[in-house]
Amino acid sequence: MIETSKIHNLSPEDYLRCIFERTPYCETTEDWQKLLPWNIKITPFQPQGQWLPD
């Protein structure tokens, strides 16, 4: 997956993050096909909160 994302000029970190964010919502074959490196639209990272307490 990482090498394929590089071939398609995607940041591997951004690609994997988008996949991990969207996979739980995939229900159809079309949803899964949208996650392929040549189909995916990479979204910017938006922090959702802190990982560790202060």
Summarize the structure.
By secondary structure, the protein is mostly helical.
Q: Please provide the ordered H/E string of secondary-structure elements.
A: HHH
For this entry, what is the oligomeric state of its chains? Answer: single chain
Unreliable stretches (pLDDT < 50, length at least 5) are none
Strand coverage percent:
under 5%
Mean pLDDT: 88
How much helicity do the residues have?
Answer: 40-55%
Structural class: mainly alpha
Summarize the topology.
Blueprint (H helix, E strand, L loop, with lengths): L1 H6 L4 H11 L6 H5 L21
Overview of the structural elements:
The protein contains three helices and no strands. The chain has 54 residues and is mostly helical. It has a domain of 32 residues. It is flat, with a radius of gyration of 13 Å. It comes from Treponema peruense. This is Transposase domain-containing protein.
Descriptive terms for the model:
54 residues, mainly alpha, 41% helix, flat, IS66_C, Transposase domain-containing protein
